[in-house]
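Render Transcription elongation factor GreA in 3D.
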Amino acid sequence: MSGQQTWLTQEAADRLAAELAQLEGPGRKDVTAKIEAARAEGDLKENGGYHAARDEQGKMEARIRQLKQMLENAHIGTPPASADGKVGAGMVVTAVIAGDETKFLLGSREISSGDLDVYSEKSPLGAAVLGADIGATVKYTAPNGREISVEIKSAEFF
């Protein structure tokens, strides 16, 4: 993931920075307190609370690394207008997929406000539409092995 650039709105960047600050401050203190309390109970081999707290700590540290990397490589603001008529990251794509019209965001879940489905550029659907011309029909292979046709109707920046 290193070096991957992500377009973020100022609102999304602020939201992620607040989450990072919470995890690095109060979040770390809380999980450390849980580990210490469980450690005080005695035998660590059979201490479920201790192992659960350590797992929570590992997940939290992974999220902290993810947020730091994302914010370091983020471009804050509005992506440049696409004059080339192609689908790009950070765009809301309207497409007909297997006969049904749908809208989705191509990019990271972190930039979404939650009201749209989000597909990574690395997902089968995302890879198929990334760089495709508006009006084109592309195909991709779903995880179940079925080939799915996608007609791109429009794409505009989120």
